[in-house]
Amino acid sequence: MISHAAIIGGGVIGAGWAARLIENGIDITIFDPAKDAEAKMQAVLDNADRAYARLTMAARLRKGSVRFTGSIAEAVDGAQLIVESVPERLDIKQSVYAEIEKSASKDALIASSTSGIMPTDLQAKMETPGRLIVAHPFNPVYLLPVVEIVGGRATDAAMIARAMEFYAGIGMKPIHVKKEIEAFVADRLLESIWRESLWLIKDGICTTQELDDIVRYGFGLRYAQMGVFETYRVAGGEAGMRHFMAQFGPCLTWPWTHLMDVPEFNDELVDLITEQSDAQSGHHSIRELERIRDDNLVAIQQALKVNDWGAGQVLAAYEKKLFDAGAKSTGDIDVSRPIRTMERTIPVDWTDYNNHMNEARYLQCFADASDAFMRMIGVDAAYIAEGGSYFTVETHIRHLAEVKANEPVEVKTRVIEGKGKKLHLFHELFHRDGTLLATGEHMLLHVSLKSRAACDPAAEILAKLEPIAAAHAALAAPEGLGRAVGQKR
Questions:
Q1: How far apart are CA 357 and CA 400, in angstroms?
Q2: Domain 186-283 indexed as CATH 1.10.1040.10
Q3: Torsion angle (degrees, nearest 10) of CA 482, 483, 488, 489
Q4: Residue positions in the annotated binding site for NAD(+)?
Q5: Which CATH architecture has domain 330-474?
Q6: In this prediction, what percent of the chain has a pLDDT beyond 70?
Q7: What pLDDT sits at residue 214?
Q8: Cβ neighbours, 10 Å, residue 175
Q9: DSSP classification of residue 330
Q10: Where does the record place the 3-hydroxyacyl-CoA dehydrogenase NAD binding domain (predicted)?
Q11: CATH number of the domain located at residue range(s) 4-182 in this protein
Q12: Mean pLDDT of the chain
């Protein structure tokens, strides 16, 4: 298990890796000689924090720590993963590996973020080349799940397997590229569309904005959830991919593309593209564009999660991992008092026009607390998959105070009744400063997901639930228990 990672190079990609790692509870040490490296990295970490507040409904893990160091040796000391994200020059990377190997643990995994240099070339001068892999991500690393895993001729197969397991565990979709090739797979595709795009702009066929609009309003939306081949399989209709290949294959011989050629890269082309790009997006700062990009990526992945498709499946699996990680075992619970079942910072999009959390999100907080309590007593994903769960049949919420975006809250839960089919919960939503914001009283019934009828829970669930109910019965009844709508205080 990796708990400490080193980042060598704190640019856009290095900072993105830092953000994803600390969001997964991994402590990091960073070396970057640039004077403004810390400030630039903090801007990326701030954007990532904002995005993760909205990416998933699960409670976030305890963040890993961030520490800048004055040398490579200090950064890699004790690290189990070393992420190299220095400039794309083979000589620089090889000199960095030489420094790393002087101080790093012999079994530390070294992962290069290179977008095109083959790992066999990277590891050519290493003393222990078997531990070097390429782990090529996409920007923003903290949101986009894909990472290309590539080994060189000297890379140990065990290191590839270790990397595949690790990156999947931090919410990514690792793809093992089994044959070395310059630029790997993803950048080969990107280079093709980039090359053709340069010709289309140079020849005056369209502007940068028109080209971007064609991508983002057209095939980009299809690619976001089906990729290339699945998209064309659908285009083939009922006859499928074979029909599509027969119908459109001959056009591959037509002289439509400039892919084997590139326009002259001169000042005129640079000025043309720069001027059009400035007109297109110059009214936004780069930080604003990053936040717009992140908001859209969160929304797209959330939509795909609802449909159980593409990147949404990766997010769903990661979210399940977070929920399971956040669930306490009954042995860890102090049943002599209400149980903390939820804590989070209020996301910006949970608020209304007054910047206060809207009423539907109070219910969201209590629903998340109920889910967390269910996991504590063993009603987790495995139990639900076997056909049992609790359904909420009645709810009463009292709204007592307002809370704003980015403010911390927590829910404390009491079991009012927990026997047989019934689970009666009373939640209290507090601001971190102690202000009681709302209460939620909920009656749940245990249900067979096969018959959809109420039934007793499994014996092991009751064995965990009933002692908590008995202990909470000794507590004073919470204020508001059993109230009806409009009842006088």
A1: 12
A2: yes
A3: 60
A4: 9-14
A5: Roll (3.10)
A6: 98
A7: 96
A8: 17
A9: G
A10: 5-179
A11: 3.40.50.720
A12: 92
